[in-house]
Amino acid sequence: MPFEIGIMTFGELTDDQATGAPPSPRRRVRETIEQAQVADQAGLDVFGVGEHHRTDFVGSAPAILLAAAAEKTKKIRLTSSVTVLGSEDPVRVWEQFATIDLLSAGRAEIIAGRGSYTESFPLFGYDLKDYAELFREKLDLLLKIRGQNPLTWQGRFRAPLVEADIAPRADGGTIPIWVGVGGSPASAVSTGRLGLPMALALLLGPMTLHQETVELYRSAAAEAGHDAGALPISINAHGFVARTSQGARDTMYPYFAKGMMDNNHQRGRGFRMPRAAFDAQSSPRAGLLVGSPQEIIDKLLGYHELYGLDRAIIQMGFGGVPQKDHLEAIELLATDVAPVVRREVALRQRSVA
Amino acid sequence: MTIVAQDHGTGPITRIPASRLRVVVVNGSPSRPSKTMGLVDVVLDNLKDMLPIEVSRVDVYRLGAGFTGAIEREDVTPEVEEAIRLAEDADLLIAAAPVFRGSYPGMFKHFFDLVEQYALANKPVLLAATGGGDHHALVLEHAMRPLFAFFQALTIPVAFFASAGDFDGTTLLNPRVHGRIEVGLTDVADLLRARATGARSSTGPDIGE
């Protein structure tokens, strides 16, 4: 597949650093759709919305935000990033994303994940004890729904389906389903065995962090008889692009640190990420996709070399980056980064073939 | 005495049927099913491909008040006495536990507190542990191995650890852990064959609960 570059958001409601007040949820949903619109117009390939069930996010129902985005966009692919499938009804997930697919003329996608946040399990009456089993069963059902209609199916966690007619069907017959993998060896192996595309979540750490994950994924896929080399891999990573290296870092840092403080806990409390640690994570061999367009190009090509990467979805507004800065970064990513990376990767693929 | 026996996987061959290795698993996990037993299942699967075995298991968390209330060996109920005896008489003891608060669970230690001081001397003991992350892996070397050093047991050199991320539910998926288990067991296959004292196996390997 040609290399794809996209953006994603959690639609988080982070307190404004000047006023201490969060933006209104109404404003935030509009901003979210505007991000999709700008990304589409500027020529990015993918727009993703994450699922979080808390009052400091507006993204508890990504399908609805994506449906709204479908109306405002023309070409960009619309994906969940991720759908917490273990606490969902796969029938409903399919119905929603097939509807988005119709609204958008075939642009809907699903990244099915176990979910790093677990709020949705008690909300929908699921026991976290069944975390792994729930995901396995629901992914199986979702894939079967995609594969055939009507469907007869039976599992542990919901009533059986007997010749069930599940509609609508997708616009183009099918919807891509990726599996979100945080990097645990078992997730990589089970995703590889199923021969499904893998969306790797990359937060912090060295660029090589997921090399083993990718190796396990590809070898499990090959062992199960899939064409391992052809399976697409995507990274979902944090980043920010600006005209200059320093400008990108200076803009991103305070918001990223705030986002980490609010969402990444130790001893049940957020912790302040020191600027030095942030700068280390931004260095050439570290995972954060922050910097000038050239830095981002180099890093994405580095990732492509390491993982055989096919797609990168960058989260650039984390921690409440002001909409104006966020939109500028989206445009820059689309105009100054994406075309070069697509071209370079295509050249590499041609020289291999 | 030569008897024609069906050996597993290798077709009919003429051989003296081997004694089964009497394996006893002491399970220190309260969960059912558990990752700890998921790890042990892989060990047992590998083991039974190498030699005939018979397996019993003691779940320390299911031994009840006759166990938890016992301070000395003489305090235990007959069923608990039987469970402890089983462990003391094993050809191979598999000591398996999850990491609780930085070490093996207290209930697991309580079981071994009731085991006779020299009952495990020179007995092959295989160590297995599971933890939330790789940073717990040294529980094998810093907590479990010293416990069996006290008993003067013959702990098997390679011990087995798996992290939560190596499992899908309770199924061990990480091929590296599988590989380590194979290596660790191959090291001691001859020793274990020599130590087998169970009933002779006429139909190849057997596995019981």
SSE blueprint:
The complex is a heterodimer of chains A (353) and B (209).
Chain A: E1 4-9, H1 25-42, E2 46-49, H2 62-72, E3 77-80, E4 83-84, H3 90-103, E5 108-113, H4 120-123, H5 131-147, E6 151-153, E7 161-164, E8 177-181, H6 185-194, E9 198-202, H7 211-223, E10 233-241, H8 245-263, E11 265-266, E12 269-270, H9 275-281, E13 289-291, H10 293-307, E14 311-315, H11 323-352
Parallel strand pairs in A: 1-2, 1-14, 2-3, 3-5, 4-5, 5-8, 8-9, 9-10, 10-13, 10-14
Antiparallel strand pairs in A: 6-7, 11-12
Helix pairs in contact in A: 1-2, 1-11, 2-3, 3-5, 6-7, 10-11
Chain B: E1 3-7, E2 11-15, E3 21-27, H1 35-50, E4 53-59, H2 65-68, H3 78-88, E5 92-98, H4 106-113, E6 124-131, H5 139-150, E7 154-155, E8 160-163, E9 167-168, E10 171-172, H6 175-195
Parallel strand pairs in B: 3-4, 3-5, 5-6, 6-7, 6-8
Antiparallel strand pairs in B: 1-2, 9-10
Helix pairs in contact in B: 1-6
What does this structure look like?
Chain B: This is NAD(P)H-dependent oxidoreductase. Chain B: InterPro entries: Flavoprotein-like_sf, FMN_Rdtase-like_dom, NAD(P)H-dep_FMN_reductase. The complex is a heterodimer of chains A (353) and B (209). By secondary structure, chain A is α/β, with parallel strands linked by helices. Helix content of chain A is 45%, strand content 17%. Chain A contains eleven helices and 14 strands. In chain A, helix 2 packs parallel to helix 3 and helix 3 (90-103) crosses helix 5 (131-147). The model of chain A has no long low-confidence stretch (mean pLDDT 95). In chain B, helix 1 crosses helix 6. In chain B, the strands form three sheets. In chain B, strands 3, 4, 5, 6, 7 and 8 form a six-stranded parallel beta sheet that branches. In chain B, strands 1-2 form a two-stranded antiparallel sheet. At the A-B interface, helix 5, helix 6 and helix 7 of A face strand 9 and strand 10 of B.
